[in-house]
Amino acid sequence: MNSFSRMKIGKQFNIVYVCAVVVPVLALGIFLVLNIYSMLLTHHRDLVHGSNNSSKKIMKEISDQIYNISDSIAYDSRTIEMLGGGYSSEREFRDAARSYTLIDNFVENYSQIGSITIYTTTQYASSFKYFRPVTDEIKEKDWYKTAIAQYSPFYQLIVEPNAYKNVEYSYALVRKITVLGSSSEAVMVIKISENYLEGRLGDSDYITLVSFDDKEVFYGSRRDYYGTLLPFEVDYDTDYYSGKFVEEFEGVNSLVEVSSLDLKQSESNLYITTIDKNALWSIIKTLLVAVSTVMVALVVPAVFMIKFSHSFVSQVNTLRDEMHKASNEDYDILKSFSGSHELQQAYGDLLVMVDTIEQQKVAMYEAMLNEKQLQNEQQEMEFKMLASQINPHFLYNTLETLRMKAFTAGDREVATGIKLLGKMLRYVLVNIGTTYTTLANELEHIETYIKIQKIRFDDRVNYSLTVDDGIDTEKYMLLPLLLQPIVENAVVHGLEGVDGTGYIQIHVYERCTSEKEAEGVIETGKYLIIDVTDNGNGMTVQQLESVKKSMTEDSISKHSSIGMSNIDQRIKLCYGDCYGIDIQSTEGEGTKVTVILPRYSDEPAKGIKSYGKSKN
């Protein structure tokens, strides 16, 4: 921010424009373009998918109708009678065929039928109406061999020249007609009308291709697609295949969907392909409009910003030049200034400043004298503060001298007290500002404190310190000066009303749960517990609740809770909210303060956060 404020105003205007206009508009524009692209692409894909599904339904409808028509013809008694034979001449066969009108009815009523042809080995059969004799050429056709070998109908792509000697690709249903009581064979071929397919499928706005298995296309939106293989990779081995992709088609990136259609009573599939060549170009045109809108939203404000910036910077430069002249004691400056209202006010203030410059100099000299006097007074105060500081080594040496004098005078109790006081003072001063210390050092410090209190109160203060096996106090790290306020409260407040022998018990142990667990304070795990118990007068329920409330409210309302809130906050800040202290007290029996810490066996100081200085 400081570097920005030191830039020239023109550059600041440019940065503000980029940050306030260019970046947001570009971000919104990119989001808008991407969102429009995604929506349009999804929309066009849905349209292609809908067209593909519509084509599938049409082909399924046609295939099922042709199949049902073939059933009606193949199982009709008139058909079986017609193909049963017993004709004495071709004329007799033709007369019978002329009177056979079943197929005529289907051809007249179902426009999807392109042709119906029955190939028969019946004696004297001739090529008349819908019947054809089975020639050697027909017998060599794959579809004829397949039909003779099986009873179920099947769909077939038949490729053969038409009447104009052009290759014709026809989608047909082929089936064998069983002629009971006769040795003759018959195969019926029903071809689907190409004109009907064109009428049903050609109305789509998309290119539609229909192919049979992995063979050539037998229907396409244009004639030049006939007889070509699908120009896309299709997994013909997958049942119910469906593929949606963007592929180049006729030199244009197009949306393509290919799906398979399972034919009734057949192992073959139709593959319906729907192609939209215009979708991506339509999307691009829409995106160009969106991008153009974004560019206009950037360019128009830029033009106004440049004009305003140039005018404003020119005014500021004029004001700066005149102020620079005044700063060099050149007071021959412009008497009028044309600019924005605020800059005019600033220039008016400059004129006033020039008129009163001498008075300002006098005031400046007086201010400098006053500042110098204040600096002298401040230096004097700092010198006095330095002089009042006590060197810790001087304090240690003084206490040691007093201890030796007491020891020489034979007053061992005083000497011991001075030694303990120096030891305690050294621990406190060393650990001020440190992050952690060992549990052993903390317990030793507590013992030193209690020994000093025992010198003061004799048998009114007694203690025991117990550390369970398995706890290495030299390796376990914790916050320094954590236990002294607790023990101090136990001595000062817990034992103050005890007339007889006072007793403080300190117990360090591990356990997997805590009394706080039932209240949902901590989670199940392994914890280090330090209990500080006294046999004082204890507290009433109301007093205990008041102490706990003062801890939770981060305030100390009772003298007996001195330091407790601070300790609890230090533990929670360091280890987490699931740790802290718990207080239990019974009136007339005593008080127990429980310190709950994490137990880390792999890293002694794992849970201690790095704040302040670390102890070397």
The neighbouring-strand order within the major sheet is: 2-1-5-4-3
What is the approximate shape? elongated
CATH superfamily of the largest domain: PAS domain
CATH architecture verdict of the largest domain: 2-Layer Sandwich
* Sheet/helix structural class: alpha+beta
What amount of the residues lies in strands? 15-25%
Q: How many beta-strand runs?
A: 17
In the CATH scheme, what's the topology name of the largest domain?
Beta-Lactamase
CATH class of the largest domain: Alpha Beta
Gap from first CA to last CA: 38 Å
| DSSP summary: helix tally | 17
Largest sheet: 5 strands, mixed
Question: How many domains in all?
Answer: 3
| Uncertain ranges | 381-389, 514-522, 555-560, 601-616
Helix content: 40-55%
Question: SSE layout and pairings?
Answer:
Blueprint: H1 2-5, H2 9-74, H3 77-83, H4 90-99, H5 102-109, E1 113-120, E2 131-133, H6 136-139, H7 142-149, E3 154-161, E4 167-177, E5 186-192, H8 194-201, E6 207-212, E7 217-220, E8 242-249, E9 252-262, E10 269-276, H9 279-327, H10 341-355, H11 357-388, H12 392-408, H13 412-431, E11 437-438, H14 439-457, E12 462-467, E13 477-478, H15 484-494, E14 503-511, E15 527-534, H16 541-552, H17 564-575, E16 580-586, E17 590-598
Parallel strand pairs: 1-2, 12-14
Antiparallel strand pairs: 1-5, 3-4, 4-5, 6-7, 6-10, 8-9, 9-10, 11-13, 14-15, 15-17, 16-17
Helix pairs in contact: 2-9, 9-10, 12-13, 13-14, 14-15
